[in-house]
Amino acid sequence: MVSSRPGGEVLDREFMYSIGDAAQLLEIHPQTLRLYDKEGLLLPARQRQWRFYTPHDVARVNAMRHLIHDAGMSLKGLCRLLGLIPCWDIMGCSTRRKNSCPRAAVRSQPCWSVNGNERSECRSCRVYLGAVEYVCDQDEAASFFDGYANPAARSAKETED
Length: 161
Known about the structure:
Blueprint: E1 2-3, E2 11-12, E3 17-18, H1 19-26, H2 30-38, E4 45-47, E5 50-53, H3 55-70, H4 75-83, H5 87-91, H6 95-100, H7 102-105, H8 119-123, H9 126-129, H10 131-135, H11 138-145, H12 151-160
Antiparallel strand pairs: 1-2, 3-5, 4-5
């Protein structure tokens, strides 16, 4: 079901979890998801005051929780680590564009959380979507996404096989 309302993104709710459903799936308190959003670690889709989470967001939270609880990182440390992702290289920016970009100058937080970014644009950016692969081992990153693939992508893959 696709929904569009004033004050929010266009959402395909068939592949979205409410904050309560996502928290239950992750076995965490909804306030934890709000904290990750506030810290700029997660960009849930929004419609008015409500947050919605994709299967990718759920896998991303699993990866962050691994880094925080198993690898001993703090939230601020994780923000700084994500801030070191070279978004200008990934996006193919020229040196001139990189030097004039406010996101390239801020290394203490991820590029998608720097003021002035459009949240809905960043949610689909390959830097944001691929961040887990930059900060986790390849096997770790793959394990976080097992079972959380977008159902549409999963059914298309099953059709191929």
